[in-house]
Design brief:
Shape: globular
Structural class: alpha/beta
Bound molecules: pyridoxal-5'-phosphate
Strand content: 15-25%
Strand order of the largest sheet: 4-10-9-8-7-5-6
Oligomer: single chain
Number of helices: 12
Helix content: 25-40%
Distance between the termini: 22 Å
Number of domains: 2
CATH topology of the largest domain: Aspartate Aminotransferase, domain 2
CATH superfamily of the largest domain: Type I PLP-dependent aspartate aminotransferase-like (Major domain)
CATH class of the largest domain: Alpha Beta
Low-confidence stretches: none
Number of strands: 16
Largest sheet: 7 strands, mixed
């Protein structure tokens, strides 16, 4: 698949240098991949090298790159109507998609949709709605959580200090609490017998000492932490959080921006715990790569008045049509495929863990899979440099992966992945791990 002895090839080198002079250096590029085109689970770079894409443009191209049905829909809709602003007018694509979203999101209660262009904007909308509806000022979010980079959602985020450094003061009123990261429990407890101490801590300590619960508008939670390190809480954790929220009439906001749209083998990850959030925020995989986000709220919560919140591009008709086709594909087979191929990858990774001491922990649901690397299993010392080397080696060998947290890599391929392509990717990954373990 790789033409050049080592990518980047000459064309990529030239584009990277042009990028450096005109593109904001705030972006973090993991390696010099300059993309020319994508098809299914494959990406081709500007030098003709082909890679297996286990990033999906950060969990976004859920149906694979340029799925023919999505492309066809984009073309036909573009010929009819590209923009008319749902803020001021009505059009059918937006209404059809909202009707679909209120049925596929958890809970049978009446719901309404506010459309956005990104994940961060969905969370901004949720923050505003939560304050507006409850008339309460405070929020709870999580250490390791990532909700976006505009000022409101950045204030909720706490996954990397570089996201926040230099940008204070933040939106006031956010308390960050430890997440159920059982591999590295913040309280030094064991998941088997802690009785969800991290949830109880919020009530028994935070509410008792610092945060009056009747002033908390919402708890913002990722059902599985994404950027924070693909951290999977134990079964029942989200349910406990829901119970806590209900006890104090606090809204539960599930950020399903990375976990949603079939990635985990269910349409939404909070389905695993049977949780019905008051608000669900969505983006990434909803429209196969077209910019679209949504905030879906119970109608009883969406009490704001005309003019209180809006935008120009949200619910763009081309993006909405792409989303409708995406959802159809997900429902027809791709969610099921994510569950089946994801389980296959997980079992292969468990075998791999027996052969490679650098693999500390493996966790996953569907095609959302994290591998945490350690220098020593006993101490769990993070293998930060080793993780970077493994990612770089995979790139050279034709597999695109990304990191998350401090020493974890995440596998988030398109949901069309076959077991054959999964096996090919795992072979490259093991080769890369082997190389790094042997210090090549
Ligand atoms: C869980 C979660 N929430 C919010 C966001 C922000 O989304 P966006 O980058 O589209 O603003 C992300 C992006 O990675 C995310 O993973």
């Amino acid at each position: 698949m790789i033409n050049n002895s080592y990518p980047p090839g000459p064309n990529a080198v030239e584009w990277v240098s042009r990028d450096k002079s005109v593109i904001s250096q705030s972006y973090t590029r993991a390696y010099p991949l300059v993309v020319e085109k994508g098809e299914g689970v494959y990406i081709e770079d500007v030098d003709g090298n082909r890679y297996l894409d286990f990033t999906s443009g950060i969990a976004t191209t859920s149906t694979g790159h340029c799925h023919p049905a999505v492309v066809e829909k984009i073309i036909s809709q573009s010929k009819k109507l590209i923009h008319m602003s749902g803020t001021d007018f009505y059009y059918t694509s937006e209404i059809k998609l909202a009707e679909k979203l209120v049925t596929i999101t958890p809970g049978k209660q009446p719901k309404k949709v506010f459309f956005t262009n990104s994940g961060t904007e969905s969370n901004e909308a949720a923050m505003k709605l939560a304050r507006y509806h409850t008339k309460r000022p405070l929020f709870i979010s999580f250490i390791g959580g990532f909700y976006g980079r505009t000022m409101g959602s950045l204030s909720l985020s706490a996954s990397k200090e570089v996201h926040r450094r230099g940008f204070a003061p933040f939106v006031p009123g956010v308390s960050h609490v430890p997440y159920a990261y059982c591999y590295r429990c913040a309280y030094g407890l064991k998941a088997d017998d802690c009785d969800f101490y991290c949830v109880r801590w919020i009530k028994e300590e935070l509410f008792r000492t610092k945060v009056p619960p009747e002033e908390v508008a919402a708890i913002f939670i990722e059902p599985i932490q994404g950027e924070g390190g693909y951290v999977f809480p134990p079964d029942g954790y989200l349910k406990k959080m829901e119970e806590l929220a209900r006890e104090f009439n606090i809204l539960l906001v599930a950020d399903e921006i990375q976990t949603g749209m079939g990635r985990t083998g269910r349409m939404f990850a909070c389905e695993y715990d049977g949780v019905i959030p008051d608000i669900i925020t969505i983006a990434k995989g909803i429209a196969s790569g077209l910019p679209l986000g949504a905030m879906v709220a119970s109608s009883s919560v969406m009490t704001w008045v005309p003019g209180s919140h809006a935008n120009t591009f949200g619910g763009n008709p081309v993006a909405c049509e792409a989303a409708l086709t995406t959802i159809e594909l997900l429902e027809n087979s791709l969610i099921e495929n994510a569950a089946i191929v994801g389980a296959h990858i997980l079992s292969k990774l468990k075998d791999m863990q027996n052969r490679h001491p650098v693999i500390g922990d493996i966790r996953g649901k569907g095609l959302m899979i994290g591998i945490e690397f350690v220098r020593e299993r006993e101490t769990k010392e993070r293998a930060v440099k080793e993780r970077e080397k493994i990612i770089a080696a995979c790139f050279r060998k034709g597999l695109l992966i990304l990191g998350c947290g401090q020493s974890t890599i995440r596998l988030m391929p398109p949901l069309i992945l076959t077991t054959e392509d999964a096996n090919a990717a795992l072979a490259i990954l093991e080769d890369a791990i082997d190389e790094v373990e042997r210090g090549i």
